[in-house]
Amino acid sequence: MKIGISMEFDAAHHLPMHEGRCSRIHGHTYRVEVVLQGEPGDDGMIIDFFMLKKIVGSVIQELDHNDLNSILQNPTAEMIASHIQRRLREELSGVSGIASLISVRLWEGRDKWVMVDG
Asked: Considering the entire predicted model, what is its pTM?
C-alpha cells in the first residue's frame, strides 16, 4: 500500500554551472510530493499523516526561505530532489512499519518537475 504527502516551500538559488538566465539569483515556490510504501500496522496505518507531515516538514524547513546555494554547490532541481530524498531516508530510518520511500517529486513552479525513485 502507498501513502503520500505534498508540501510547499519557497527558496532562492542560482545555477553557477549554467550559462543562461538561471545563472542569476532568482526564487521559486517548490512543491515536494513524497510517497511511501508499507503495510498498515495494528492501528490500520502505514504512518500517521501528522507524523509524516512533521518528518517531511522538518526536512523542508531546512530549505524554506533559504539561499539553496548555501546548502548545495549546484542546486538544480535534480540535486535538490536528491538532497530531500537523502534527508528523508535519514529521518524515516527510525520509523517502524515503513517498507520503503518510493519517490520524491519536486515541482519547480507549476509546470516543471523532477522525480527521484526509491
From this structure: 0.93
Residue 64 falls within a domain, yes or no? yes
- Domain-embedded: residue 86: yes
22 labelled catalytic: yes
65-73 contact pairs (CB < 8 A, 24+) = 65/9, 65/10, 65/11, 66/11, 66/12, 67/11, 67/12, 67/13, 67/25, 68/11, 68/12, 68/13, 69/13, 69/14, 69/16, 73/16
Query: pLDDT tens digits, residue range 33-91?
Result: 999 998 898 989 989 999 999 999 999 999 999 999 999 999 999 999 999 999 999 99
Residue of 14, 22, 33, 91 marked active site:
22
